[in-house]
Amino acid sequence: MIPSNCAVCGKIYLKISKPVCPDCARKELETVKRIRQYLKPKENRNAPIAQISKDLDIPIVYIEYLIKEKYFDVTRYPSMMYACKKCGAAITAGAYCMNCINELQQEIQQAKKPTQSDASKKGYDEDGDEHFYRSRL
Ligand SMILES: [Zn+2]
Ligand SMILES: [Zn+2]
């Protein structure tokens, strides 16, 4: 748990998984209701998150969090998306879009390969290093 500022009221609290303090978390459903209410009229249906944030005075990070928690059905509220951390594509869950997830997975796999094939040799080297550092201490 890391002390962190609540995204809504700014109070310092111990962060577990929510971007808001327990007091504001208790009002979570109210906040969701307010946003749903706001999106009801046709002219607001496609309001971008930045506008919702401004009009309702709810921090963008918190709206993004609520989307991640699946409070909004994207088929009904198509604007309830936020940007992929890597490429900025519109997404509704997680931190990255499918493309970036695939790319990241490939990168991880490629990064793994050389170390795995070197593993047997490496054991020796690491031992050597350990002796080297010990003798220097
Ligand atoms: Zn708060
Ligand atoms: Zn992406």
How does this structure look, described?
The chain has helices at 22-26, 28-39, 49-56, 60-68, 98-136; strands at residues 2-5, 12-15, 82-83, 90-91. The protein is mostly helical and 137 residues long. It folds into two domains: 1-95, no CATH class; 97-137, no CATH class. The chain has a two-stranded antiparallel sheet. The chain has a two-stranded antiparallel sheet with strand order 3-4. The longest helix is centred in the last third of the chain and has 39 residues, at 98-136. The protein starts with a strand and ends with a helix. The relative contact order is 0.08. The mean pLDDT is 85. The site of one zinc ion has 8 residues, from helix 5.
List the helices and strands and how they pair.
Blueprint: E1 2-5, E2 12-15, H1 22-26, H2 28-39, H3 49-56, H4 60-68, E3 82-83, E4 90-91, H5 98-136
Antiparallel strand pairs: 1-2, 3-4
The site of one zinc ion has 8 residues, from helix 1.
Brief characterization of the structure:
With 137 residues, the chain is mostly helical. The protein is built from five helices and four strands, in the order E-E-H-H-H-H-E-E-H. Strands 1-2 form a two-stranded antiparallel sheet. It has a two-stranded antiparallel sheet with strand order 3-4.
